[in-house]
Amino acid sequence: MKTSNFTVHKMCRYAIFLLAANHLTACVTVGHEFPAGNVSSIKVGESTQNDMTNLFGTPFSTGIENGLKTWTYGDYSYNLFGNGNIDELVIRFNKHNIVSSYTFNSTKRSK
Question: 3 in a domain, yes or no?
């Protein structure tokens, strides 16, 4: 099969365009997925750090708020041309490593 240099050049440009377009529309994900359906199992004043590890796994990040431990579970997905999806759970522990409060936020729509 005989092809001209022009046709090969055109096909190469098209392939480069497709790769670039795919890269621009790619999704970026930070954090890791966690079982958001387990949030209702958290019992303030009762659940322990071990309970949280059993329910959600290892936190994405840990920190300190007002001298007390916080754990964050986060699944953050961003898309250049579309809506991103975020699930974020922040758990605050008292000095006895019992859940003192938590916040769960999600941008995912229920179907």
Answer: no
